[in-house]
């Protein structure tokens, strides 16, 4: 799994700004420590997908109402339900450095967030290939908590995957997953390929998010402004 | 004959999977299998029957996931009734089959224990006790604790089983393909923990198939002294469409189990995906195989959550620095409940390669049991080293042993009857290796014979509690050589004889020997080396001391305990390199200075000539020139001096600006040689912090840089504080700010950032942690009469609990100014829930606090 450094710097708020040497060093040593501590795992199960007349999505192991998810799963008659995690070792480091060195903690938060995304991308790419070989196409993964896909589905999904036993994922009272660097998602399986799937930040409805990925155009505009300001 | 006797006489077989068989009978994905105890009793009984008929000797009641967290009274479930029902189904099956034992099954709670999750250790323990009591009452023959991935939860379950019941306790854990538990424990660490707690059978289950588990079984067999149970999955699972299939069939499974039986497993069974067929075939292949010998390994071993430390091989370094004796700054930290200071002391010792950390927090006037519990919990969440619980307060000792995530080292017991009667029952109950001081009611014997006699008495008494001598570390006691010239020799003789004549393990607090002498390090290091040579198993020393560690590292090399000198080279190689580089730098610097001096001299000579040309020649003038030169030289010296202090200033400032903590620490130490702490703080530290803060606000400095600078400043502050505490003039605090992440929220990074910055600006920060109830925040605000409270929330779902906290604060502590922050908040939102200030970033919080404190 190769973690994109650009993503880490984006999470750290650098945008298009150059990164100084000390921070770069900090990021790299944090990555080394994280890579020693993480134990990535993932599970996936395939379920039939039915949508009831009153608009409920029945995903085999969870039932919910969500317009965003429904749109995402359009044209699919089955889904993959997945869970992935970096394991408890990462949380240990986050807790440790939250107390001993916040700069490391902040960087590790960003780096492990990028890492779990990279891990999800890797497993999804594998499944995508396997399904495409059978003439089936996977939609972008969609996680509880995005848009109107309720976070309360988390428990059903984790139970359906036996994620507690297999991956060690548990839920807090507030419905958050622990280990914290864990992801659950639903992936539609369709018989045709979407030409231009909208995924990631662009698919998210929270447009004022601090970490929203900006398009190249935005970057260029910002840089121009920055330069202009300096002139 | 009970099952514990039977397993030593014949091979016993457990049953296989339950969940997968229920699914085949219609249990839906995500549906909780325990509900079938009430809805499908016949099906449950039938599965047990099938296993018994296939040759299983133990059937596992359907109580794996049964606990009060998954089944709540308010949803109409009674854990007690369900446990009783589950056990009675199994009992009926056993009765019908005419043979078999019923095991009450305890799985993970499904909740993560604090500090990672919100479940407190004792709450986990209580939840397990509820099931254990009901299960034993309903007629279970034993308790099987299985599929444990967290050693802390495992400890809670084993303690519950032992404390709430009388049944034999079997405990098996789940490993991943690297041989690690989910929370990082190893086979060796979990074996130490379970044997310390007195489990009757230990082992492995779930997670992997028998082929993958084999090497880990071998590892467990090599280190354990307890019969081993293995219940693997039916192989590695793979999804085929909607169903889970396993990569090996029942014949291959049985063949692999045979190998298990031949490599140390006494008891065999199955887990996920295994069926009566698997058990039948396994039994057929393995029944007549001889039972593996279960030998007492007599290893002296302690553990943390992640790893074990064994005594008797490479001598163990026990870091002594977590101890207030003679340390004003440490005492101050204890009085202020400044656990962060203690954490840093721990981390520094770990960095200096301590294997174990001694923890002593005894101080007149503090509640030692509570402090000990707090410190142990905090330490084990941050450091992965095993701890040595160092106290003579029995209540504190028990608290710490109970809450400790592993098998602890306990310091200490001695030959006094009263002390042995208090300490040994704790060691027996919680497990542990205990330091035994060679003294008793008659004091410290003067001779080695006398000390050995006390050690013998302690060995014997321990044995009467069922504690083997492998769980005793004899402390031969080290007296000040300045008071008794034979002091060291007596100690060394005792160490040698305990090692040679008794095969015992020894420990010494080394530094006492030099008491009353100058340059104590010399004596300490020499004595340490001598003790090592006489067989010392562990030294309680200051690992930050170069002299001690260099003696230790050299000893390992010279006694062939450092393969290829790898450890030595690893530590001292880079140091040598750095030395060379420093020399090279010095050479270059000297050359540069010489070059500059040469140039300067040339320039000056030129100038002087020019001036002289303008001046009229004459003796008087010549004298004047002489004076002038003198004056110039003087001014030059002054400038040089100014430049010197200015450089010290700028070097501290520079380190802070660049975020270099080590550099800042050193520069602060340098600056303190010539200046007052307060002046350094006001003219260097604060301005540097302000500069970085401004840069952050302007967008030219980013969060990691801001924080690295804050930490560098903190490192410099720590040096100042140490000095001021030693001078008896603690740093004056600006005022109190209470910080908390609100109830339900476990994201505390934002709060931690704010904390570091506020502390640097001199505020006394009371950090209540994360997931803090509104009442706890309000109570603290009232108690401390704090002027400012900062609340953080990251999740939309937890903003209501922030609102509630604010409501309670306003009503019970109306003077308090409340600042809030967190990803989901906005200025408008903050206003609407009644906060006095919204902090968009960490610097905002500093400004807010400055305004109101």
What does this 3D model show about the protein?
With 231 residues, chain A is of the alpha+beta class. Chain A is built from 8 helices and 9 strands. In chain A, strand 3 (57-58) and strand 4 form a beta hairpin. In chain A, helix 1 (5-11) packs across helix 5 (102-132) and helix 2 crosses helix 5 (102-132). The model of chain A has no long low-confidence stretch (mean pLDDT 87). Chain B has 853 residues and is of the alpha/beta class. In chain B, helix 5 crosses helix 6, helix 19 packs parallel to helix 20 (546-558) and helix 22 (619-658) crosses helix 23 (661-674). Chain B has 30 helices and 25 strands. The model of chain B is unreliable at 621-644 (pLDDT under 50). Chain B starts with a helix and ends with a helix.
Question: Key terms for this structure?
Answer:
heterodimer, A: 231 residues, alpha+beta, 4-stranded antiparallel β-sheet, 3-stranded antiparallel β-sheet, 9 strands, 44% helix, globular, B: 853 residues, alpha/beta, 8-stranded parallel β-sheet, 8-stranded parallel beta barrel, 30 helices, 25 strands, 53% helix
């Amino acid at each position: 799994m190769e973690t994109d450094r650009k993503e880490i710097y984006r999470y750290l708020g650098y945008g298009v700004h150059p990164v100084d040497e000390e921070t770069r060093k900090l990021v790299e040593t944090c990555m080394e420590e994280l890579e020693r501590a993480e134990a990535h795992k993932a599970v996936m199960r395939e379920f039939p997908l039915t949508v009831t007349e009153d608009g409920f999505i029945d995903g085999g192991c969870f039932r919910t109402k969500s317009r965003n998810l429904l749109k995402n799963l359009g044209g699919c008659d089955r889904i993959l339900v997945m869970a992935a995690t970096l394991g408890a070792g990462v949380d240990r480091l986050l807790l440790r450095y939250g107390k001993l060195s916040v700069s490391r903690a902040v960087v590790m938060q960003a780096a492990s967030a990028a890492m779990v995304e990279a891990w999800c991308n890797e497993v999804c790419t594998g499944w995508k290939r396997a399904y495409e070989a059978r003439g089936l196409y996977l939609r972008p993964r969609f996680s509880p908590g995005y848009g109107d896909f309720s976070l309360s589905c988390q428990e059903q999904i984790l139970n359906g995957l036996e994620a507690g036993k297999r991956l060690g994922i548990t839920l807090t009272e507030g419905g958050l997953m622990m280990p914290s660097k864990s992801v659950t998602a639903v992936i539609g399986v369709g018989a045709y390929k979407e030409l231009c799937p909208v995924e990631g930040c662009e698919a998210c409805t929270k447009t004022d998010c601090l970490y929203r990925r900006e398009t190249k155009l935005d970057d260029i505009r910002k840089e121009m402004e920055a330069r202009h300001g300096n002139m | 004959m009970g099952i514990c006797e039977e397993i030593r006489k014949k091979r016993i077989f457990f049953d296989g999977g339950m969940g997968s068989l229920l699914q085949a009978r219609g249990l839906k994905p995500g549906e909780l299998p325990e509900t079938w105890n009430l809805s499908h009793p016949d099906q449950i009984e039938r599965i047990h029957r099938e296993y018994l008929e296939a040759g299983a000797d133990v059937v596992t009641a359907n109580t794996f996931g049964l606990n009060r967290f998954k089944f709540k009274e308010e949803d109409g479930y009674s854990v007690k009734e369900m446990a009783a029902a589950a056990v009675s189904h199994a009992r009926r099956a056993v009765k019908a089959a005419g043979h078999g034992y019923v095991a009450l099954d305890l799985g993970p709670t499904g909740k993560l224990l604090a500090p990672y999750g919100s479940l407190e250790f004792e709450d986990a323990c209580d939840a397990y006790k509820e099931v254990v009591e009901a299960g034993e009452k309903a007629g279970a023959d034993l308790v099987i604790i299985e599929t444990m991935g967290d050693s802390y939860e495992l400890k809670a379950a084993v303690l519950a089983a032992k404390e709430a019941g009388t049944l034999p306790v079997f405990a098996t854990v789940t490993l991943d393909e690297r041989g690690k538990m989910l929370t990082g424990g190893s086979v060796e660490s979990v074996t130490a923990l379970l044997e310390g707690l007195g489990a009757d059978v230990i082992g492995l289950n779930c997670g992997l198939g028998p082929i993958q588990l084999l090497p880990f079984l071998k590892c467990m067999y090599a280190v354990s002294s307890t019969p081993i149970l293995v219940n693997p999955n039916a192989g590695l699972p793979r999804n085929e469409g909607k169903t889970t299939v396993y990569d090996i069939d029942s014949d291959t499974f049985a063949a692999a189990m045979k190998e298990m039986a031949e490599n140390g497993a006494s008891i065999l069974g199955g887990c996920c995906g295994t069926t009566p067929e698997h058990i039948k075939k396994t039994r057929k292949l393995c029944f007549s195989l001889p039972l593996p010998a279960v030998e007492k390994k007599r290893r002296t071993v302690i553990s943390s959550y992640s790893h074990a430390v064994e005594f008797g091989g490479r001598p163990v370094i026990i870091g002594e620095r977590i101890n207030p004796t003679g340390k004003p700054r440490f005492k101050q930290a204890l009085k202020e409940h400044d656990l962060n200071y203690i954490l840093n002391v721990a981390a520094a010792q770990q960095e200096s390669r301590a294997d174990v950390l001694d923890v002593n927090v005894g101080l007149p006037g503090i509640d030692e049991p509570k402090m000990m519990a707090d410190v142990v919990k905090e330490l084990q969440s941050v450091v992965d080293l095993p701890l040595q619980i160092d106290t003579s307060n029995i209540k504190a000792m028990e608290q710490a042993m109970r809450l400790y995530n592993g098998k602890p080292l306990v310091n200490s017991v001695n030959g006094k009857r009263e002390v042995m009667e208090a300490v040994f029952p704790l060691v027996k109950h919680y497990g542990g290796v205990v330091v035994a001081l060679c003294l008793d009611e008659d004091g410290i014997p003067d001779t080695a014979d006398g000390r050995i006699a006390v050690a013998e008495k302690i060995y014997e008494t321990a044995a009467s509690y069922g504690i083997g001598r492998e769980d005793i570390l004899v402390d031969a006691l080290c007296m000040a050589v300045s008071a008794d010239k034979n002091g060291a020799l007596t100690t060394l003789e005792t160490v040698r004889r305990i090692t040679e004549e008794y095969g015992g393990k020894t420990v010494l607090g080394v530094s006492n020997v030099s008491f009353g002498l100058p340059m104590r390090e010399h004596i300490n290091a020499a004595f340490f080396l001598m003790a090592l040579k006489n067989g010392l198993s562990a030294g309680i020393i200051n690992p930050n001391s170069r002299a001690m560690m260099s003696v230790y590292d050299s000893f390992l090399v010279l006694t062939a305990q450092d393969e290829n000198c790898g450890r030595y080279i690893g530590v001292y190689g880079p140091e040598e390199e750095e030395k060379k580089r420093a020399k090279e730098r010095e050479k270059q610097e000297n050359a540069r200075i010489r070059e500059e001096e040469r140039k300067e001299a040339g320039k000056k000579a030129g100038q002087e000539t020019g001036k002289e040309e303008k001046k009229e020649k004459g003796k008087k003038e010549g004298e004047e020139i002489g004076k002038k030169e003198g004056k110039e030289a003087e001014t030059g010296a002054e400038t040089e001096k100014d430049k010197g202090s200015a450089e010290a200033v700028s070097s501290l400032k520079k380190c802070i600006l660049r975020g270099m903590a080590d550099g800042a620490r050193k520069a602060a130490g340098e600056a303190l040689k010539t200046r007052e702490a307060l002046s350094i703080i006001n003219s260097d530290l604060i301005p540097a912090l302000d500069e970085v803060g401004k840069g952050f606000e302007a967008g030219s400095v980013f969060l990691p840089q801001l924080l690295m600078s804050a930490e560098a400043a903190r490192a410099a502050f720590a040096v100042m504080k140490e000095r001021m505490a030693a001078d008896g003039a603690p740093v004056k605090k600006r005022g109190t700010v209470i910080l908390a992440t609100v109830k339900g929220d476990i994201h505390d990074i934002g709060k931690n950032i704010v904390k570091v910055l506020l502390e640097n600006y001199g505020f006394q920060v009371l950090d209540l942690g994360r997931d803090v109830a509104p009442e706890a925040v309000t109570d603290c605000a009232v108690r401390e009469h704090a002027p400012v409270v900062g609340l953080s929330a990251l999740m939309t779902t937890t903003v209501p609990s922030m609102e509630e906290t604010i409501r309670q604060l306003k009503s019970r502590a109306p003077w308090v100014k409340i600042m809030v922050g967190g990803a989901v908040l906005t200025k408008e939102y903050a206003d609407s829930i009644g906060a006095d200030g919204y902090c968009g970033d960490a610097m905002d919080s500093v400004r807010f606090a400055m305004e109101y404190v």
